[in-house]
Design a protein that fits this description.
The complex is a heterotrimer of chains A (361), B (309) and C (441). Chain A is an alpha/beta fold. Helices cover 29% and strands 24% of the residues of chain A. In chain C, helix 1 (24-41) runs antiparallel to helix 2, helix 1 (24-41) crosses helix 7 (179-215) and helix 14 (329-336) runs antiparallel to helix 15 (341-349). Chain C has helices at residues 24-41, 48-70, 81-86, 91-101, 103-133, 145-150, 179-215, 217-231, 235-268, 272-281, 284-295, 298-309, 312-325, 329-336, 341-349, 354-378, 389-398, 407-435. Chain C starts with 23 loop residues before the first helix and ends in a 6-residue tail after the last helix. The chains are: A alpha/beta (361), B mainly alpha (309), C mainly alpha (441). At the B-C interface, helix 1, helix 5, helix 6, helix 9 and helix 10 of B face helix 8, helix 9, helix 11, helix 16 and helix 17 of C.
Chain lengths: 361, 309, 441
């Protein structure tokens, strides 16, 4: 996959600078019982002060190793799991009136939250687990319509069939069950379900990582198509930089629950700043034996430290090839080093300033 | 540990109180009074006097308080049908019988069940295993009254091994005890077999084999302990079922136990006797469950005696 | 030998075209409602036969329909397990295939269906034939098929304690009633108690366990603590208390009804004063009792009471399943598309835990039939002239003595009861093995 995609340079049209989803200082903590030795409460900082903006029609890629908190971020934004602090704001246009509506997702609950979720949908990683095996495809895709009462039962069928066509499924298969489809087709079902509500922001939680390499490309093309047709904004999560490169306008790199670098796609691939990003990028194989032969890889030593451990300083410091003594004490701040290129590393002077409230812009 | 025991004791007491209260109001809800047949045609004054004797003229709430106070102090009140007898006396007379029957059945069930279960597990997928398990299905499906009748016909009428019925000699308790225990023996046997087979497939058993322990030692020292767990957790419900099952068995074998008294009292509406037996039975049951819970924490080190997660 | 492997025709639930296609929980509720409606109507003499008949017909149709879905034609070529898996059939069909290969279970199913058919047809014909012939039950000639083999209430003083003969296939009882008819009638009562009780216990248990498991935390802790406490209760004792209450009510109600009838007769005869006098004797309590028993006939109380006390294990099983199911991604997905708790529980979680629920409910049916038999045996279940296998066995026990054993009184009902309990247990075990092949050996 990566082999195929790394060669393609994707420079996609930069969309308008209109923020639809704005996340500030999002933190999700999981209490993990008590430490036997010290009796202290152990807390897993799954997401630790993440901030970013998502613009209209834009794809923001979110990459990082597994366990770095990408999926947790996605689910916390949707309020599928509770967040401990931070704010999530959603600015969309009401599909009926066309007027802008504002939702403070972090403060909503009940009916209002359900209303907001109509505009913010998610595609899941595992197309085998995310579809109810006891429901027909038609029922699955129609369910959001039923819940929100968006279509009468006689219109529902047409809506479902047009959605199925849109995502490249045969509408004749409306009565089949998920187990009768291939992984790629199932992911299309999941996409159709997410699109049923006509959302404006779509969170894609590693939508292709569980798929065969041969069908990834098709699903990614479908997502790109849908974006240009419907003007969707994507928060696209992956652990594969190649996949992200193909889709994203901007890329954010996460490490241990923190965003360490955010930059436009072409820039992050051309001039990565954070040592972690550099290491990640160097791991992508290049489909040219000549280059590949001489290329130097940055190999990271050691494992990811446990997110349970108390952190002092930069979380990447223990593995960083360029670590300095102060990295163990000072927490770097995500700040713009170049225009639109933010990085959280002490190698870059802006990160050394004390964190101000609302660090971005 | 102390907190655990204490917490469980409180819930035991609450449970007994709950059952007692529920039964009290259930039985008072029934229309008519216990003397409807006895005092047919009697003057209203006589009926009133009779009612006053048993506090039945008071409002329900006061009746409840009087009765509850009695229960707490260990006085279950006078019987409404057996003249001049108190419930305490009746229970004192019949309770030992029921306990004897119940414990015989319990012992039979555990010994028989564990033995056949272990044998079936060790002889897994042989005719012995299939045979034992087929018998177990029979034991589970056959109602105990049918088993008991079969037992009477075969062992008493034909073979003349046991005395017919009644409650005079020790051999009197064997047949009813056996009939009562068979369904539970069958269930325990199946539980033991499944538990044993599971344990015998575990790595530490293979290690035990490897370090040269004999089959007997492995079964007794390692496997049996693990296989005990599901059995122990079944003992609580089994005890409840044996208690209720004894109602039928006592009826078939004409055993003057607490079960017979309960059924009679329930049909005659002898309020105090019914409530008294219910209190005794539920205390017994709760206490037994309490003991089972405690022993469970000793048997399985993974079960921490701290409630909550 | 080469056999053409034909793909089994897959039946699919019609979508949108059949608005009546209902999820299983809804149909369960509807069935209970229909049952309550039928049992209420059954108290009105004019409605007994047609209503019962239609209801039984509908039920038989449902049984046949379900059976058709569960069984694949027996002449279908046998496939190896790998072939079946390769076809990508659903887990359920796969399990049904394994079940059909279990000869004990299939045999039990056939025997049980035959038994049920026999019992329910006596039940239906007993009510139906008098209506068709336009005759009173008592008016049938004593040697007619109806009087000999179908009427379980007909007494005959000249024929008490007859051993099995060509006339009375199973012999007669102490009142000269035909034991064959009584055994069949007792069977329909026992089966109905088993089925309805199971439906009640499954509905309560599944809902309780699903709610506790889904909400978790404090809710779960309290709901499961309640289950723990209820587990420790001597439940049959409470059922016995309830039954004495009901029987007491029944006695009051029948004497009240008698008074109403006397008053009506007096009124008809023109003696209004006497009618008023009788009516004025009826106390409000008696009136209430009469009305309550109209709406809750004792047999329904047996159904409900036993069902209500046997849902605890079901709740525990369900909770365990739900705890693992609710972490599955399709449940998270359902929350993301805005589904509320009831929808998630009943549309997404409950249908996915049907496997263990089906297994456990087949094992609950015999348990409940056993409880009913037990109650009737003690003398607190069904009342005369109706009967169940338990009450028949109880009567039969009285006939077991050394001098002159009336063995048939015990043997036939006990054999029928044991046979169906065996069958149900075998089916339950077979289903469990089929749905969870690991547990088999």
């Amino acid at each position: 996959m990566s082999v195929l995609l790394a060669a393609e340079t994707s420079v996609r049209q930069r969309p308008a600078k209109e923020v639809v989803l704005s996340v500030r200082d999002l933190s999700v903590l999981f209490p993990q019982g008590y430490d036997r030795a010290t009796g202290e409460r152990r807390i897993l900082r799954a997401v630790d002060g993440v901030s970013f903006d998502l613009h209209r029609g834009e794809t923001l890629g979110l990459v990082g190793e597994s366990g770095c908190g990408k999926s947790t971020t996605a689910r916390a934004i949707l309020r599928l799991i509770g967040m401990n602090s931070g704010s999530v704001k959603l600015d969309v246009n009401d599909p009926k009136t066309g007027k802008p509506v504002h939702y403070d997702l972090d403060k909503l609950s009940g009916a209002k939250l359900r209303e907001a979720r109509q505009h913010l949908q998610i595609i899941f990683q595992d197309p085998y687990a995310s579809l109810n095996p006891r429901m027909t495809v038609g029922d699955i895709i129609a369910e959001p319509l039923v819940i929100y009462g968006l279509a009468k039962w006689n219109e529902r069928r047409d809506r479902v069939q047009s959605l199925m066509k849109e995502v490249g499924l045969d509408p004749k298969h409306v009565l089949r069950y998920p187990h009768e489809f291939s992984g790629g087709q199932r992911q299309r079902i999941g996409i159709a379900r997410a699109l049923a509500l006509d959302p404006q922001v779509l969170i894609c939680d590693e939508p292709v990582s569980a798929l065969d390499v041969s069908v990834r490309s098709q699903v990614l093309n479908l997502l790109i198509d849908l974006q240009s047709r419907r003007g969707l904004s994507y928060l696209f999560i992956a652990h594969d930089l190649g996949v992200v490169k193909r889709l994203s306008h901007r890329v954010g790199v996460m490490y241990l629950g923190k965003l360490v670098e955010v930059a436009p796609s072409e820039e992050i691939y051309r001039t990565p700043k954070h040592p972690y990003t550099q290491a990640l990028l160097s791991a992508i194989p290049i489909p040219d034996p000549v280059i590949e032969k001489d290329r130097r890889r940055i190999l990271l030593k050691g494992d990811i430290p446990s997110p349970l451990a108390r952190q002092f300083g930069c979380p990447f410091a223990p593995r960083c090839p360029q670590a300095m003594p102060e990295c163990k004490t000072i927490v770097p701040r995500l700040a713009a080093d170049a225009p639109a290129h933010e990085v959280a590393c002490l190698l870059y002077p802006p990160s050394r300033t004390a964190p101000a409230s609302d660090s971005k812009k | 540990m102390i907190r655990f025991v204490f917490g469980r004791l409180i819930s035991v007491i609450l449970t007994i109180w709950f059952v007692a209260t529920l039964s009290f109001f259930l039985i008072r809800l029934a229309p008519g009074n216990p003397f409807a047949n006895e005092l047919r045609g009697a003057t209203p004054e006589v009926t009133e006097a009779k009612k006053r004797e048993y506090h039945l003229d008071l409002p329900l709430r006061e009746q409840y308080w009087i009765w509850l106070r009695g229960v707490v102090t260990g006085d279950l009140g006078p019987s409404m049908k057996y003249r001049g007898k108190t419930v305490n006396e009746i229970i004192r007379q019949t309770f030992p019988t029921s306990i004897a029957l119940g414990s015989v059945a319990m012992v039979f069930a555990v010994v028989l069940g564990m033995m056949t279960g272990v044998i079936a597990a060790l002889k897994k997928n042989t005719p012995i295993d299939y045979g034992l398990m087929a018998v177990a299905v029979f034991g589970i499906s056959l109602p105990s009254f049918i088993l008991a009748t079969l037992g009477i016909v075969v062992l008493v009428f034909w073979a003349r091994l046991f005395p017919l019925a009644g409650w005079e000699t020790y051999s009197n308790v064997l047949l009813p005890g056996l009939a009562l225990s068979l369904p539970f023996a069958a269930k325990i046997s199946r539980l033991t077999r499944v538990g044993m087979i599971e344990i015998l497939g575990e790595d530490f058993i293979r290690t035990a084999h490897a370090k040269g322990l004999s089959e007997r030692q492995i079964v007794i020292k390692h496997a049996l302990r693990g296989a005990m767990l599901p059995v122990v957790s079944y003992l609580g419900p089994a005890f409840a079922l044996i208690l209720t099952g004894s109602l039928v068995i006592e009826k078939i074998f004409f055993i003057p136990g607490l079960g017979t008294i309960f059924v009679q009292a329930a049909t005659n509406r002898d309020y105090n006797v019914v409530l008294g037996t219910v209190v005794v039975f539920s205390s017994l049951l709760c206490f037994f469950n309490f003991v089972v819970d405690l022993s469970y924490t000793f048997l399985d080190p993974r079960v921490k005696p701290v409630s909550g997660r | 030998m080469s056999i053409a492997v034909t793909k089994p025709t897959t039946r699919r639930r019609a979508w949108v075209e059949h608005p009546l296609s209902l999820p299983i929980n809804v149909s369960m509720v509807l069935w209970i409602l229909s049952f309550i409606a039928v049992s209420l109507l059954a108290n009105a003499p004019w409605a007994v036969t047609p209503v019962m008949f239609v209801w039984l017909l509908a039920n038989s149709a449902a049984i046949v329909y379900v059976g058709m879905h569960l069984t694949v034609p027996l002449d279908a070529p046998r496939k190896s397990e790998s072939e079946v898996v390769a076809e990508g059939t659903s887990l359920f069909r796969d399990a049904m295939y394994r079940l059909r290969r279990n000869q004990m279970a299939t045999g039990s199913m056939v025997i049980l269906l035959l038994l049920m058919l026999a019992c329910f047809s006596q039940f239906a014909l007993f009510h139906l034939i008098p209506v068709i012939k336009g005759k009173d039950r008592a008016a049938f000639a004593s040697d007619s098929f109806y009087a000999l083999h179908l009427d379980h209430t007909r007494t005959n003083e000249g024929e008490t304690y007859e051993p099995p003969t060509a006339q009375h296939w199973f012999g007669t009882d102490s009142l000269g009633r035909d034991l064959f008819a009584r055994t069949l009638f007792g069977g329909s009562v026992s089966f109905l108690v088993g089925i309805v009780g199971t439906v009640v216990s499954v509905s309560v248990g599944v809902s309780w366990g699903a709610v506790a498991g889904y909400f978790g935390g404090r809710v779960d802790e309290w709901m499961m603590r309640i289950v723990d406490i209820l587990y420790g209760l001597p439940f049959l004792f409470l059922v016995i208390l309830i039954m004495t209450l009901v029987n007491g009510l029944g006695n009051v109600a029948s004497s009240t009804d008698q008074k109403f009838a006397e008053a009506a007769a007096a009124e008809k005869a023109g003696d209004t004063d006497k009618a008023n006098a009788i009516l004025s004797e009826i106390t409000p309590d008696q009136r209430t009792a009469s009305i309550v028993t109209k709406f809750m006939p004792p047999i329904v109380v047996v159904f409900v009471a036993i069902g209500l006390v046997s849902w605890l294990t079901m709740a525990r099983i369900t909770r365990g399943q739900v705890l693992s199911l609710k972490e599955r991604e399709f449940v998270v997905a359902a929350r993301a598309i805005g589904a509320r708790a009831p929808r998630i529980i009943f549309r997404h979680i409950v249908p996915n835990l049907m496997g263990p629920v089906i297994v456990y409910s087949t094992l609950t049916i015999p348990e409940i039939m056993l409880s009913e038999a037990f109650l009737s045996f003690v003398g607190l279940g069904i009342s005369e002239p109706n009967c169940s296998w338990g009450s028949l066995a109880s009567e039969g026990l009285a006939g077991v003595n050394i001098i002159k054993p009336y063995w048939w009184l015990m043997v036939y009902p006990a054999a029928a009861l044991s046979l169906s309990l065996f069958g149900l247990n075998f089916i339950g075990d077979g289903l469990r093995d089929a749905l969870d092949p690991r547990s088999a050996k």
